[in-house]
Specification:
elongated, transmembrane, transmembrane helix, alpha/beta, 9% strand, Dehydrogenase/reductase SDR family member 7, single chain
Amino acid sequence: MPSLPHIPLPKIPHISWLPITIPHIPVPYIPYFNDILGILLGGLFGLIAVVFTVIGAIGVLIAIPLWILPAIWFLFFNDRNISLGIREYIGKGIKKYSGKVVWIVGVSTTLGKEMALELATVGAKLILSARKVDILEELKEDCIEISNGKLSDSDILVLPFDITEMEKEYVDIAIEEFGKIDVFINNTGHNTGLIELNDACKTDIDIDISMFDSNFFAPAFLTKQVVKHFMKTGGGEIIAVSSIVAKGGLPGQAAFSASKKALNGYLDCLRLESSRHKIFVTTVCPGLIHSSDSDSENTVFVGTSEITQEEQLKITRKGLKPKRCAHLILVAGANRLTECWVANQPFLLLTYLAQYNPWVHRYVMGFIFSKKRLEKIYEGIKPNIWIWRPLFVI
């Protein structure tokens, strides 16, 4: 067998250009050096792990209250969404409306009255609109009295009309009285609870049409006219009262929820279109509102059969107080917030779920409004639903 040819390896040239000579340092032999070094390094890293474990445990102990305390605050001390809660303490107050011309449509309701009274305390010039003249005249006297001399008879205009008529002349009258409108508050609309509470497929179509006329078409028509005026005067503010039912729905409230959703969508588009004209649009979605009378527009759970006045009041008394709700609505408008939610629990929590986790919201609502409970509600029996007010909130 022939042998392979010998190939000499190339010689490595001597590196002569290095500036220094690296000396050879002999390493003394230490018995068990690697073992000792391993033990020391292992102990050091073990100590570091223990320190971080202790720090982590302390962090967990600190983090738990930091999670629990906000949860407790949210469930038992809160009646509005976070952005509105912050603005209530460090934002602009109602005094911003002092001397402004504010047109409130829908002051015959308890909520509308409270907004008018609070604006009167800061000296805002008011245009009060509703269908009943006697209610408007009485409210005008109350506003003058509560203003402590800030308002006189000439500072408040009583403008009765039915918003569903959609007549432009009422807008012209409101503008002509003071020469301008600075703030327009739309508090109109009605609820299916006053007519009939039933499944969507069983509700008469005339009720659906009536609901859209009152909750969407009429407010949209009036808002169009006011926006045109704002464009001429260099801007203004629109505060629209919607409902949290528009966020997640409620059994038996299909027409009401749909009409309010339509209003919210309309205002969302209007907000984007009008911002360049310095027109600011605020949508406030209240929940169940406390009522002292049986004719409240906020009565939600009324079935097809008669429900007693006492049972009806037991439900609405668990709602948010109108004075508190009116204050939060005006704070939202004063700070030009986009959309706000105002409600007692569990409605506020359910609204958050509907906004940020619809899947969970659907199952929670299915649990709350079970088949048996819905049947009782449709029959006019008071629902056994746990509703609570925030603590230490007036």
